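A.,

Following up on our hallway conversation. Structure tokens first:
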């Protein structure tokens, strides 16, 4: 039985542990000030639970490079990157659209710090509807000849998940090499039966950062949020849609699901393939070697683009830096669609500065939360932008999940990274940065069409929100650095 006389000593011990942990957060992990204060508050107000929460959600991932590869097997990537860096430094890089040459500093940013090769021979198709996207994806899977590489944060064992598995199993039985990689946290409801059925048919399946002990995953805070499919090394898919019925609009809670996804053919598929191989080789003991047969893409169009990755293993928050560079380069317009708007001070300042400089800044968020706490932090942040003159739209038709930025109708970014601290610092993400006026205009037109299904949040409406909403905003914003 518990000796109540020992209770004060136990309490003192817990306080001592909390002090030690607070010391580690402040002096050893070198976090930014906002995250440090947020964790100190958790430790202060939840002495025992806060310690456990920190062990699971607060520890940093080791900065050592977890995605290792033999430089000899990089199929000339390093040399190609160095050649492009020199062409930018010597002002000899040529694009089909001369007006895009003013964005050379953005190309350089991603080349220098992310090995994100600029390819200029791509054909890109944009999907904003789940039915259209998955119809095209499954049709391409059915036409696969050599291999199918598929990575998703969420895969569900529902109608769409079954439809996908049937297509993959059919191709595996035909001799096509099929590999499926999913995030252990995002796909935590995926049944073992689903996985076994795939494996029994010859599909190789792996989980990213799986729990060593069932239901206890100490890396739960670091999630592979990427969505990639590469077929025969020629066709690539990248964007926001996961695998589940809600992404087809079949979930009554969310209704219509508005997202953005790209189908890519051309040189950029090389870089998407390399990203998949890196992730697969980390998760699997059956490494994929960087062989020519995985890189069969052919020139298809004139879209220039870069495939940019970021994650907690990265030295820089590369996608966030790309967002900031895009926004600060704007002369006329910045259109942003995101389910969560919880930027750090650097990105929030960039959006404010653009708006205060006379740029037409428009931000669109969903009307409903899929994570209530995160939603109120989002609502608080967009409210701040109203004072700077930005226009805020609340999408009403269903759930807005798109992660899209379009600047001046010339350049754009589409991918998996939300505008929040989790995407910038904790998740493994991948985005396509697109340099093509026609494609950017198409994305811009989609944004303007979505305004029809949105209501505008005005300064007057925001100021008249209830005290209860203000309270929820304040708490959510205070803790947003560790969400």
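Then the amino acids I'd put at each of the 483 positions:
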């Amino acid at each position: 039985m518990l000796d109540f006389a020992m209770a004060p000593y136990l309490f003192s011990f817990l306080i001592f542990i909390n002090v030690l942990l607070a010391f580690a957060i402040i002096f050893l992990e070198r976090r930014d000030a906002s995250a440090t204060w947020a964790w100190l508050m958790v430790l202060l107000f939840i002495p025992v639970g806060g310690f456990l929460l920190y062990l699971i959600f607060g520890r940093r991932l080791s900065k050592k490079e977890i995605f290792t590869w033999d430089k000899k097997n990089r199929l000339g990537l390093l040399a190609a990157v160095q050649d492009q860096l020199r062409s930018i430094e010597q002002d000899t890089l040529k694009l089909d659209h001369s007006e895009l040459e003013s964005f050379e500093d953005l190309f350089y940013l991603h080349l220098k710090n992310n090995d994100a090769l600029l390819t200029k021979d791509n054909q890109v198709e944009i999907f904003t509807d789940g039915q259209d996207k998955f119809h095209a994806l499954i049709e391409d899977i059915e036409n696969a000849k050599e291999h199918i590489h598929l990575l998703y944060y969420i895969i569900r064992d529902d109608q769409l998940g079954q439809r996908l598995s049937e297509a993959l199993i059919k191709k595996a039985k035909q001799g096509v090499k099929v590999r499926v990689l999913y995030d252990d946290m995002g796909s935590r409801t995926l049944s073992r039966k689903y996985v076994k059925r795939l494996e029994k048919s010859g599909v190789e399946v792996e989980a990213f950062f799986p729990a060593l002990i069932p239901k206890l995953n100490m890396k739960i805070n670091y999630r592979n949020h990427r969505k990639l499919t590469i077929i025969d090394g020629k066709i690539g898919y990248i964007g926001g849609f996961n695998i589940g019925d809600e992404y087809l609009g079949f979930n009554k809670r969310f209704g219509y699901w508005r997202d953005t996804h790209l189908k890519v053919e051309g040189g950029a598929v090389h870089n998407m393939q390399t990203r998949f191989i890196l992730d697969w080789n980390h998760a699997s003991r059956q490494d994929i070697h960087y062989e020519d047969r995985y890189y069969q893409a052919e020139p298809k169009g004139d879209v220039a683009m870069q495939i940019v990755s970021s994650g907690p293993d990265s030295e820089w928050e590369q996608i966030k830096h790309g967002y900031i560079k895009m926004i600060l380069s704007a002369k006329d317009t910045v259109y942003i669609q995101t389910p969560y708007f919880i930027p750090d001070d650097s990105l929030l300042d960039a959006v404010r500065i653009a708006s205060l400089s006379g740029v037409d800044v428009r931000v669109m968020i969903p009307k409903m939360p899929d994570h209530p706490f995160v939603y109120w932090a989002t609502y608080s942040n967009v409210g701040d932008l109203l004072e700077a003159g930005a226009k805020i739209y609340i999408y009403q038709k269903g759930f807005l999940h798109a992660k899209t930025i379009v600047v001046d109708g010339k350049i754009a970014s589409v991918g998996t990274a939300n505008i929040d601290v989790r995407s910038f610092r904790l998740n493994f993400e991948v985005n396509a940065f697109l340099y093509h006026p026609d494609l950017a205009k198409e994305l811009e037109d989609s944004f303007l069409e979505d305004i029809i299904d949105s209501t505008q949040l005005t300064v007057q409406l925001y100021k008249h929100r209830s005290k209860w909403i203000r309270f929820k905003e304040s708490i959510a914003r205070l803790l947003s650095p560790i969400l």
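The two ends are 38 Å apart (CA to CA). Curious whether your intuition agrees with the design.

B.
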